[in-house]
Amino acid sequence: MTTTTTSSSPAIAATGMRKAYGDKTVLDGIDLTVAAGTVFSLLGPNGAGKTTAVKILSTLVTADAGDLRVGGHDLAVDPQAVRSAIGVTGQFSAVDGLITGEENMLLMADLHHLSRGEGRRIAAELLERLDLTEAAKKPASTYSGGMRRRLDIAMTLVGRPRIIFLDEPTTGLDPRSRHNMWAIIRELVGGGVTVFLTTQYLEEADELADRIAVLSKGRIAAEGSSDELKRLIPGGHVRLRFNDPTAYRFAVLALHDVTRDDRALTLQFPSDGSQRALRAVLDRLDSAGVEADELTVHTPDLDDVFFALTADRADASADGPDQALESAR
After folding, report:
1. What's the CATH architecture for 12-95+143-230?
2. Does domain 237-298 have CATH number 3.30.70?
3. N or C: which end of the chain has fewer CB within 10 A?
4. Average pLDDT along the chain, 329 residues, taken 10 residues at a time
5. Are 18 and 25 contacting, i.e. CB atoms less than 8 angstroms apart?
6. Which 3 state secondary structure label does DSSP give 239?
7. pTM: predicted TM-score of the whole model, two decimal places
């Protein structure tokens, strides 16, 4: 029986999750909490442990330590209940290319012990939902990469999971197929499904994720919303542009620690882009009776965050990801 999580109870909760292979520690006691009905993205370089985390939380691999709950079930006590609550789409397609898309769906329905009629009904619904009806009778080997990934998702949805693990689902797809996959993910979450997403495409996490965790050297280097993570990294600034030279001169007098461009009539100053910081600047301009014609906020992007938090630095090797974060600041 699939357990539906509620908004007050996390869909996924992991405390102290550890995994080592021999003398190599892959996950060094990480903590994760994923709210129901959201997209949670785990970022990290190759070998950081993203796929291992997915395999543990989806019961494919046993953790060495940790209190782990998925869909309200304890992985150590009732892994079968967890399997009933989740769906998994891995990096590599589970589609059988020798049979048709419809036959792949019906095979999955059989694995979920659905009746023949129910299996056909659900297969038809999902094939239509993911725009695969016209290709349903064709061998899956003839499908494009994007079509195979959509069929993969459709097969995952046969069991009506409320929690889905997507391990790098758009790897190898062209930009159009990737955007189509994003639309599918948004639709799933809009229907209350929780998505645990690993990806190497930072734009993907920026577009989709409610919360993002950056995994580095087996530990969580930072976690937060995309905007929160971007504010960790220096380089943000606000740019003011004026059309009136007189207003520009008054603004120079009203503001401090600004970089001037007298020819372009622009001022630039460091800022984290927060509402409080912007209000303070605007209040100072108001007091001087000045109004900027254009205000632009520039913040570091997720690429900057990723590189800063996962950089291989001597101090990071000695002191761990937390020290790397301090260096980034």
Report:
1. 3-Layer(aba) Sandwich (3.40)
2. yes
3. N
4. 54 97 94 97 90 94 96 95 91 84 95 93 93 94 91 92 91 84 92 93 92 93 91 82 94 88 92 81 90 87 85 43 39
5. yes
6. strand
7. 0.75
